[in-house]
């Protein structure tokens, strides 16, 4: 309820709804409720119930990542756009990744978990390189830019960034598991899983979906079948120690793109996860984040460095590459602002890092703050760059 309330409140402030939902989760944790009313916080969120929140929240994420992958649309792409998007993606991945590695080297001893220096740095690089593709797509759609040249380049670039970031994250998890007994299972099983999904399941799935829609009004059966598939794929990736979100994402990538089956499917799944499961994830994320650590100068300084790195790593490369592609300075600046929106995607990465002990709780809290700030500034930068006073945007 708190997530929905704050989400709607932030829409009145011309901000993405997800910003309010993320903030609600943080306020329910030790940053606010746990600090001022510790007894009440313990009563509402007893430690014995946290595993259930974790399971339900991750279940929602698996469905959410399926939708994220399913909404990737490459039908408008031509060779020129692919080239422009490729260069934009390359520099917007390399710059924040390099800054993430640098941050990891500088603050490794202070903020590390159980990960080594290399896996710690790669994780930070992936977390800074991510862009909230769904938020970016909605902003462009609300402003009538989704099917323009700029909109197509930006959405394609953001989707490439997200795919590469998830691949980097999968590499980190394999590196972490590589030193354990389960590492062999992950290193061998992950490529086999991907090959099976793309070479066997994808054509088989296309044939099954066509058969479902030969009969009029058989959408209920198709929806149930899809839910089972998402759960099966999530369980398979979780068994391989790649986290369940990868299973949902990979299934979304290989799923048929027929509009008559995809559009109602997205609506039904979103109704389920946005109303119930994602708020549980926001709540769980907030219970693990404590922004009060920033009262300590020893953590405040690295947090400020991380926030600056996250912004310039996206904004400056976007500005330069878009200008080189003959876009105006205002359009280039607007893209730089939008690319900084990390939203829920950053929260997902942060939770994976904490779950596998790649990062400390202090760094987890810093990444949560980066997710909030980077998403909050996206719309103001866009509006100022494009000389727009307001932009109605509800996710």
From TrEMBL:
GO function term, MF aspect, one: antiporter activity
PANTHER family to which the protein is assigned, alphabetical: CATION/H + ANTIPORTER (PTHR32468), K(+)_H(+) ANTIPORTER 1 (PTHR32468:SF0)
Keyword Heme: no
Organism encoding this protein: Chitinophaga oryzae
Residue span(s) of domain Cation/H+ exchanger transmembrane: 5-378
Gene3D superfamilies, per the entry: 1.20.1530.20
One GO CC term, this protein: membrane
Spans through the membrane: 21-40, 52-74, 86-108, 120-140, 152-176, 188-207, 219-236, 271-293, 299-322, 365-384
Location(s) in or outside the cell: Membrane
Keywords: Ion transport, Membrane, Transmembrane, Transmembrane helix, Transport
Phylogenetic classification of the source organism: Bacteria, Pseudomonadati, Bacteroidota, Chitinophagia, Chitinophagales
Gene Ontology biological process terms in this record: proton transmembrane transport
Name by which UniProt lists this protein: Cation:proton antiporter
Keyword Transmembrane helix (UniProt): yes
Membrane topology: Multi-pass membrane protein
One Pfam assignment: Na_H_Exchanger
Source domain of life: Bacteria
């Amino acid at each position: 309820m708190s997530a929905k309330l704050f989400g709607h409140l932030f829409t009145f402030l011309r901000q993405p709804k997800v910003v309010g939902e993320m903030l609600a989760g943080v306020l329910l944790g030790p940053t606010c409720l746990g600090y001022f009313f510790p007894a009440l916080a313990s009563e509402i969120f007893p430690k014995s119930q946290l595993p259930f929140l974790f399971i339900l929240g991750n279940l929602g994420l698996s469905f959410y990542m399926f939708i994220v992958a399913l909404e990737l649309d490459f039908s408008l792409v031509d060779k020129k756009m692919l080239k422009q998007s490729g260069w934009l993606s390359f520099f917007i991945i390399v710059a924040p990744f390099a800054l993430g590695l640098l941050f990891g080297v500088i603050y490794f001893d202070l903020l590390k978990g159980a990960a080594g220096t290399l896996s710690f740095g790669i994780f930070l690089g992936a977390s800074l390189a991510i862009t909230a593709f769904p938020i970016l797509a909605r902003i462009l759609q609300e402003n009538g830019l989704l099917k323009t040249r700029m909109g197509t380049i930006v959405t394609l670039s953001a989707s490439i960034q997200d795919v590469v970031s998830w691949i980097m994250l999968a590499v980190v998890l394999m590196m972490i598991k590589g030193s354990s007994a389960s590492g062999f299972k992950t290193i061998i099983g992950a490529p086999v899983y991907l090959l099976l999904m793309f070479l066997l399941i994808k054509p088989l799935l296309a044939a099954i979906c066509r058969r479902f829609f030969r009969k009029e009004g058989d959408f209920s059966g198709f929806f149930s079948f899809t839910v089972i598939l998402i759960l099966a794929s999530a369980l398979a990736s979780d068994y391989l120690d790649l986290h369940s979100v990868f299973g949902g994402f990979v299934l979304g990538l290989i799923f048929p793109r027929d509009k008559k089956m995809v559009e109602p499917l997205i609506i039904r799944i979103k109704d389920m996860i946005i109303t119930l499961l994602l708020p549980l994830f926001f709540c769980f994320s907030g219970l693990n984040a404590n922004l009060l650590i920033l009262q300590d100068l020893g953590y405040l300084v690295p947090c400020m460095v991380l926030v600056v790195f996250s912004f310039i790593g996206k904004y400056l490369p976007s500005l330069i590459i878009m200008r080189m592609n003959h876009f105006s300075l205002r359009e280039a600046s607007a893209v730089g602002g939008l690319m900084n929106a990390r939203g829920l995607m950053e929260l997902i990465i942060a939770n994976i890092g904490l779950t596998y002990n790649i990062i400390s709780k202090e760094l987890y809290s810093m990444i949560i703050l980066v997710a909030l700030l980077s998403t909050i500034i996206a719309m103001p930068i866009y509006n100022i760059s494009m000389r727009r006073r307001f932009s109605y945007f509800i996710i």
